[in-house]
Structures are given as C-alpha cells and as structure tokens.
C-alpha cells in the first residue's frame, strides 16, 4: 500500500515543462492580438461584433496573412501544450492535438468572399470546435492529488460552458444575427483560456505536493 501511494505521488507531482506553460499562456494573447491587428489593417470598416474573425483571413480582406498566421500560431500553441500536458489523460492530449491539426486546416482553407461558401473551411471549423469542446473530457482523471483543472467536475463545467458558447455562435451563424463576431470571439477566448488554466492548476498542484 505504501509503495502504491509513493508511485501515485510521483505521477501527480510531474509538472508541465516551461515551454508548455509558455505555449498555454500565450495562446489567448496571440489570438486576441492577432484579430485586433488584422481588424485594424482592413481597408473597409470592420465590425468585430457583427463580423466573423474568419473574414479577416478570407477572400477580399486586406492583409489576410495576419489572421492566417494567427490561426497557425494558435494551432501550434495548442499542439505544444498538448504534448507538454503530461499530467492529463492521454485521450485528452490526443484530442487537443487533433484540434490543433484542424486549426491548421482552417488556416489553409480561407472563408469565401461575401456571397460565397467554402465547404472545407466550414468542415474544418466544425471539427475544430467539436474537438476543443471535447478534449477536457478526455483529459480529466479521477483520484487523489489530481490537479483541479483535470478533475471531473471542473472538466465537465468547462465542456458545458464551451458547449453553450458554441451553441450561441451557431445560432448567430444560422440565423444571421447581429452578434456573430462577438459570439465567435467569446468562444475563441474560452477555448484558448481553458488549456492555460489546466496547465496552471498542474503547476500549482505540483508545488503544493512538493512542500
């Protein structure tokens, strides 16, 4: 019994490497900074509440490379965080990696010009949204000493919040509501912030168990 508890403690105090902490921390910063800069570069007035972030990288936009690069960097950050998130269950890490790959495909499949439709952009966006909503369920673990960000209850709560925000975004998208851009931005920030909160909880948990 004592040997088992010792092994459990060794597993739980494994932290996230510094480069994983960095990638998780910069993800929301890169995302917000990227769409802010891209919006400022538009030659035509851009309404961040009504218009989608994807239009900043779509056909007909100005300096599309800014938002495209932002999508790619955010995807790389998700991938790096997933690799570094060793305290999480493997299934969640794999799902987050898949979400990162979907993000790359979104970046290389720009949305069509107004009046058009890009099936590949819509497809990979949907896959990415689904995977980013699901990964906390795959990553959570039960047991003594688990970081709070990987415990079942917070993980279920994160999924519920992201699911509600995704539903809001889809309603705005389908109904042509006036808050499409706002819904997408709130959803994006929530998706990008949760990995950082999980990583932070892992680091705090490691420090607490090491005392």
Describe this structure in words.
The protein is mainly alpha-helical. It is built from seven helices and no strands. The protein is 71% helix and 0% strand. The protein has one domain. The longest helix is centred in the C-terminal third of the chain and has 31 residues, at 180-210.
Largest sheet: none
Number of helices: 7
Mean pLDDT: 89
Structural class: mainly alpha
How many domains comprise the coordinates? 1
How would you describe the shape?
Answer: globular
- Our estimate of the beta-strand percent is under 5%
Which residues form runs of ≥5 with pLDDT under 50? 1-13
Quaternary state, please? single chain
Percentage of residues in helical conformation: over 70%
Question: Could you provide a short overview of the structure?
Answer:
The chain is mainly alpha-helical. The chain has seven helices and no strands. Mean pLDDT is 89; it is low at 1-13.
Characteristics of this structure?
single chain; mainly alpha; 211 residues; globular
Layout of SSEs?
Blueprint: H1 2-12, H2 18-40, H3 64-84, H4 90-107, H5 119-139, H6 152-175, H7 180-210
Helix pairs in contact: 2-3, 2-7, 3-4, 4-5, 5-6, 6-7
């Amino acid at each position: 019994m004592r040997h088992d508890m010792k092994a459990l403690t060794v597993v739980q105090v494994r932290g996230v490497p510094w480069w994983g902490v960095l990638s998780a921390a910069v993800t929301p910063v890169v995302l917000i900074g990227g769409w802010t800069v891209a919006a400022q570069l538009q030659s035509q007035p851009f309404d961040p509440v009504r218009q989608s972030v994807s239009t900043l990288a779509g056909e007909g936009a100005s300096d599309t490379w800014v938002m495209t690069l932002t999508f790619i960097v955010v995807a790389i950050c998700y991938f790096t965080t997933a690799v570094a998130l060793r305290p999480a269950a493997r299934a969640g890490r794999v799902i987050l990696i898949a979400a990162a790959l979907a993000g790359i495909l979104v970046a290389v499949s720009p949305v069509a010009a107004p009046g058009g439709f890009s099936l590949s952009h819509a497809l990979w966006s949907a896959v990415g949204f689904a995977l980013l909503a699901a990964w906390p369920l795959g990553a959570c673990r039960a047991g003594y000493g688990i970081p709070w960000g990987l415990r079942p209850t917070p993980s279920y709560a994160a999924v519920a919040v992201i699911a509600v925000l995704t539903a809001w975004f889809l309603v705005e998208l389908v109904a042509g509501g006036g808050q499409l851009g706002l819904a997408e931005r709130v959803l994006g920030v929530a998706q990008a912030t949760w990995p950082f909160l999980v990583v932070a909880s892992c680091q705090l948990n490691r420090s607490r168990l090491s005392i």
